[in-house]
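Case study B.
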Amino acid sequence: MKEPMIKWLKEHLPTKLPGVTVNDNFGPPVYQDGQQKFVVQGRKGKPDVIEAVLEGMIAYQRAGLLAPIDDLFEKWADKDQFIPSTIKALTLNGKLYGVPYNTNVRVLLYRKDLFQKYGLSVPKTWDEMLQEAATISSKQSGVAGLGLTTKNGSVRTFQEFISFFFEVNNGENPFKYDETGKKWEMNTTPDKLAKVLKLYSDCFFAANPSAANQNTRGNDYQATDTDYVSGKSAMVPMGPWIYSYRTTGEVAKKILEEETGVAPLPLPPGGVQATYLEVKPISINAFSKEKEAAWELVKILTSKEFVAAANRIEGVNPPRKDVAELPEFKNDWWEQAFIAQLPTGVALAAINWGLVINDITESLQKAIYKKQTPEDGGKELYNTLDQRAKGDQL
Amino acid sequence: MHFRSPKSVNKSVPIWTSLSRKGFGYAILFPALFVILGLNLYPTVSGILTSFTNKSLIDPSHSAYVGFDNYLKILKDPVFQIALVHSLELTSLAVLLQVILGLVMATLLIQNVPGIHFFRSVAMITWVLPIIASVVMFRFLTLPSYGLINIVLRDIGLERLGRNWFGDETYAFLLVLIMHLWRNVPFYAVAFLAAMQAIPTDLYEAARIDGAGDWRQFWFITLPNLRYIILVMVVLHVTFTFNNFDFVYLSTGGGPVNATEVLPTYIYKQAWNGYVLGYASAGGVLMLVILVVLVLACNSLTRGLAEE
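Model:
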């Protein structure tokens, strides 16, 4: 949680939640650390309220650490203000486990100035994206046409991969729950996984110079973000948070405010418009001894006032319709460009994604380091994921 | 004045006094014993027991005994095998090079030249820096677009050699090794320097009179006198390096394509990304066994040297 949000809470909580002392230790700044602590210590009942990323919330729910809040949410006057897809994402096995306070999707950011300079149009297909990126790589010195995050085990690497995968897989998750057999099973094919791996391979090898700079293989998210805002890449699959980089310098400010265009992610042949939907929930600890006060705190953290303040600071999208209607959001081209893509967002299935993320990023790296053909990679990844599903590891 | 022999003292102590002395001894031992048992023995035993179950952190109520299944599975996992090889390579290379470079650095630091006290004072800086700061520094140095190394290569006309060093499967492991050396060599050097300063100077004077040159003095006087400290440093750093998690996790996460994967990062991912605690514990137990074997091997190897 960023400092201004903590300041807002410290200022407002005493009046909004009278008679309740809220511990102002907001936990570790990194989700991974917070996740470890909550999984191990959550059963002690503290913290009463927890903020998470969707993958984390799914793990907490699987561990029995979250209280279902359907009844409380149904009685709340604000319930209809939330975008239905965000509520659906937080509904696991028919029960609601959190209220969203921010959301976003992955889109394609592109440099309008470079596209204009070389007479390019916004890519609508993967092939166009590869060709145009390769054109920019060859014509604009020091600039790669495309920037990608490909670090091993990185959540961002996974989020970019799964966005392209959703397009290939008809907007569906790679696993589906079999109600009769009461277990997860595969909901894709080796060919579909291979298609996405081939896209990554093509980004680095299909042209010379390549669409994406081979020297950026293994980049983490900071490098991807920094490369784009410093003009080292011309296109990136990205979320709205990057807009906060405009305060880091004049170059970043100019690129983000004047030279960046926002478009849906390009499509594969026969693909559907779909992308990774990020939803961040506020949930209640199932072992909390103060559930009533916890719910009051959840309502404050997902209220119109706080969501507006938090989303202005974070630069992401509000999951509340009334906040999206506020002038500062309605008249903001950046917010609107991302909000327009929210309906194409696909929420992750309610499985334990940890090892799946490792499997996917490992296969992706094998493809971009030429350790395996995309076809073989697709087959191997399918088999690994299938074994996880059959071995009850999801 | 009256003196009593030790024998007479023993005879004169009543049994209750002796017991209360023993009790006092146990009482002052207890806090340390409690900490050791509580913080070391209990988790170790608990980890060993967990390794025979399918315990999961996100499904803690369904833990069942699975025998040696976790061990059989983990030993067949190709990534575990890669991580094991990398851990052994990294440990042996890092410790060997640290000893050699530490000796070289200590030999330089012991010289009486102007300004040597300054160098002795700053030698430990790399060891004092937090590991995260060291890794961030190395990451910045090696960034593909803005890293100092690539900038220098570009400026001297060797741009073609520039790359994303941590993202390059050929160089990533080497960089991890360099980070270990960069941090630990000064620590070795300072330890060796202290031991060198304790060697009587008349040994060197006698050797010089007998016509021994610098190299023979080092080989026949310095090195034998450093055997004990070398033993201590090797045993300590075999443990440290084999267990080291931070350098790899923070710099490469084990990539690219598992090129830097080591056992601690592999086990961490199983435990905290996959929450498969039983499986991860099996990895931890295997690590413990390997480490005990390594330390025993180091001990016997260096004991031979020390007894010569």
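The radius of gyration of chain B is 26 Å. The remaining cases will be described in the next quarterly update.
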